[in-house]
Design brief:
Elements lengths: L4 E10 L5 H11 L2 E11 L10 E3 L1 H14 L5 E4 L5 H14 L5 E4 L4 E2 L2 E2 L5 H11 L4 E2 L3 H7 L11 H13 L4 E8 L3 E8 L2 E8 L8 H14 L4 H21 L15 H4 L5
Parallel strand pairs: 1-2, 1-4, 4-5, 5-8, 8-9
Antiparallel strand pairs: 2-3, 6-7, 9-10, 10-11
Helix pairs in contact: 1-7, 2-3, 3-4, 7-8
Length: about 280
């Protein structure tokens, strides 16, 4: 029987929303992994709603790291998502330096923007500082907006050709990342995730759902983090994650679920448990 596996998931916690840590905890747990959470912010619900409560957790993050270090906790994977300020990026960089061991995987989801626009909370300096985390990542999972920002390119639009996507991936790897997965690349009929590792590029596609559900990127990054921790390659993990998210999104669309509610993955978590090798 394999040892108990543990992931440090660093992201915001949105109470009544299927995104960020609220998504990461059940997905990582269903893969048989102990999910240790470090909230970067507390929200009643995600910011796509008209009203929400928000509390910054920058000071608490340092206390989490300090106490985990005293406890001697060791991690098989460190997964970082939404970071709200320069200080939080610095804290995560220190956390990786303190807790990363030879076997520890680092997954960075650089949550900076979407649809060609950087989020209003992100400054140019923060975007540049995010490159320091990319430099120590085993896998980076940007959407196309974030990928273009990381490699210093103007946004290439919703439907870039394969050559442009490979160029973007190579430039991100030049920052230090070992593997890149650009998520949510759309054409008129499909949505694709593009994996680049060691000069090899593979595209994994599924049928485009008419609605874009909030939190899908968080679901994807959580799946990648969990699957590589149990021994899957980035290609195997992306293939599985693409199919899993399509199944959840198809169901959510069929039942008429609001896009703000995110994809209903709860009834499909049993599929994740089947991936565990005891």
């Amino acid at each position: 029987m394999k040892k108990d596996l543990r992931i440090a998931a660093i992201n915001d916690l949105s109470g009544a929303s299927r995104c960020s840590l609220t998504t990461a905890i059940p997905i990582i747990s269903a893969l048989g992994i102990n999910c240790c959470v470090m909230p970067t912010a507390l929200l009643s619900n995600h910011t796509g709603y008209d009203n929400y409560f928000f509390e910054d957790c920058t000071n608490q993050m340092e206390q989490f790291a300090l106490n985990w270090k005293k406890m001697g906790i060791r991690f098989d994977c460190i997964y970082s998502g939404f970071l709200g300020c320069e200080k939080q990026i610095e804290i995560v960089g220190d956390f990786i330096r303190d807790f990363k061991e030879e076997h520890t995987k680092v997954v960075i989801d650089p949550v900076m923007g979407d649809n060609g626009e950087i989020y209003s909370t992100y400054t140019d300096k923060m975007c540049n500082e995010m490159k320091s985390l990319v430099a120590v990542a085993d896998i980076v999972t940007p959407n196309l907006t974030e990928a273009c920002t990381l490699c210093g390119m103007d946004y290439v639009g919703e439907h870039p050709d394969d050559a442009i996507l490979e160029l973007i991936c190579r430039r991100i790897c030049e920052l230090g990342a070992k593997s890149v997965v650009i998520t949510g690349c759309k054409d008129h009929h499909s949505v694709s995730n593009i994996v680049y590792e060691n000069g090899k590029t593979v595209k994994y596609s599924s049928e485009l759902i008419p609605k874009y559900f909030t939190g899908t990127g968080d679901t994807f990054a959580s799946l990648i983090s969990g699957l590589i921790t149990i021994g899957k390659s980035v290609f195997e993990a992306t293939d599985f994650a693409t199919k899993f998210i399509h199944k959840c999104a198809t169901y959510s669309y069929a039942i008429g679920q609001s896009v703000n509610e995110g994809i209903a993955c709860e009834r499909f978590l049993g599929l994740l448990n089947k991936e565990i090798i005891y």
